[in-house]
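Annotated sample (chain length 460).
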Amino acid sequence: MKMKSSAEHGYNHISTDRGETGMVHKVTNFLNKGLWMIRSQEMPFFKRVSLNAARILMLTGRFFIQNQCTVKASALTYYTLLSIVPILALIFGFAKGYGYAEMLQEKLRGWMSAYPDMAEKIIEFSDRTLQNAKGGVVAGVGVILLIWTAVKLLSNIELSLNGIWGVKRGRTMIRKISDYIAILIICPFLMLTAGSGIVFAASHLNGFTQKLPFSSTINALINYAVPVVAVWAVFTFIYMAIPNTKVRFRAAMPAGFISALAYLIVQSAYVFAQFVVVKYNAIYGSFAALPLFLIWLNLSWMIVLAGSELSFAIQNVNEYEMVPEDHLLSLTQKNIYAMELISQIARVFRAAQLPLSDEQLSETLEIPIRTTRKVLYEMVAAGLLCEVYMKDENTLRAYQPAMPLEELTPLKVIRSLEDLGGVQLENELDKKYYGLIGCLRSALDVLPENKPFGQDEESA
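Output written by the structure step:
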């Protein structure tokens, strides 16, 4: 009886485990597949909003892991640490030119209130670096070095955000210098409103709010809201300005708001932790602040990257409907997408219309934007397409055929993509099977279905 009871107990335990595993599998399967196979347009408004919110969260988490954002945040932390003094010197230089250097210094002192000596050292060292750059042995070399350091850091930031958006090409050097200098001027100015705005709002609204009920609560909300709005503006600006693609305001704004809240929470925790760590100065000396600073810097970059993933998900969530597994792209599926894209491009080219951008192609053919950009990039590298830079501010670049349309056949597309990167024939066996592939291609080349793209539309 005991053995039977044990067996029954074991069976029940196994059944419970299987039931739990089955439930986990069902939930995972729904999140990865079922969630994306629902037609959102057929749902009521509130259900559609809830469904899109769940999809946005799923896309953000999925791509945050796939794009290795934690690794990128660590790399950006390292680059920031190397260039923080030249960057601050350059920012202080711009701040002096525009008359808000003292406000910026006071903001830094308040931010590092637990380490006033260190804050003064940073300000002093930044000023000295700027003076040395302006009055160096070779005039202008120091300033150029400071600008190059800033461009290098912001280039790495752009590279990370471009990877999130699936953009393969960055800005040209001329655009980097002009755009990055604008970013270095605008971002500190917006951040300063987080401090000065509190004083302004409190002094001008205090008399008015005293007449209202719950005046103390309203004043407290104003004090908290002003820095949130300022940091929100900075994050929104970063998400729109740094990626080398068009990011819509409606996507950057909510992502900037959530990132601003997360950043201010982390910053408050960092300021609080500074006072806690001060008591360990007797043991660690001035090094007590370094690990804490690195943790804060790393978390800040993770917030920036997560917010960029969120803005991408908001802008492109509808393109992933009925496409549950974007990252599992087979060779056959890639060839299908390539032929769909090149067929649409050829059709527009034959009609003598303006070439289409990656976003227009993605929206027209209902292909996820990252997949669209990946396949377009490979077709450009294979010599099938060429990029055309447009004057329209809404379209950075568009695509058109790189060869006569009569040569653009399905087999030509497949062959070019398969041979991208070159073929190495190291022994006789390689040559044998390469010859076999050549024979199969020759046989397919003469099939009537292997006709140039857009020929049906032309004959019709």
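Annotation: The radius of gyration is 29 Å.
Annotation: Strands lie at 356-357, 385-389, 397-401.
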